[in-house]
Amino acid sequence: MTEEIIIAGFGGQGVLSMGKILAYSGVMQDKEVSWMPSYGPEMRGGTANVSVIISDERISSPIINQFDTAIILNQQSLDKFEHTVKPGGLLIYDPNGIIHEPTRKDINIYKIAATAKAQEMGISKVFNMVVLGGFLKLKPIVAPEFIHKGLEKSLPERHHALIPQNEEAIEIGKGIIEPVYTL
Predict the structure, then answer these.
(1) Tens of pLDDT along 100-128?
(2) What residues form DSSP beta bridges with 111?
(3) Which one of 45, 101, 134, 152 has the largest count of C-beta atoms within 10 Å of its C-beta?
(4) What is the pTM assigned to this prediction?
């Protein structure tokens, strides 16, 4: 099993954190992992993306141009990465701020209203964990106990009290992801 993922959005949406939690969770589950972030010079509001590879086998290169899954959190990223999903692959997007929805008919497309759900919960900081939950429902590449360990490893100790909220957000995400187009 090898899963090549791109997560893309604006800085401040937790794109890099989501990738890091996935990567740490994979490491905790004894998988081979690559985590390669990319972001503009702006801290918040600029574009950010991270490619994550989780595999049972040795990873030959962290640089990839085609992905099994794209998790897209803004229009710029959809425009840039929709065409990079391998035929038969998966594209997940949050419809908030998306003007032109994905159009491909050779991939599986799902939407998750994570922004709206996180606002409804009153905790906008868990937005990325809602999205992660939706992804893990469709592709459970790491087990929940390893996600917990990944959260412990990637969150600073002063934020460990927030781990239960993050785990709740992951479970909520599993329940609200919706198919748009499936093969």
Answers:
(1) 999 999 999 999 999 999 999 888 888 99
(2) 93, 178
(3) 134
(4) 0.93
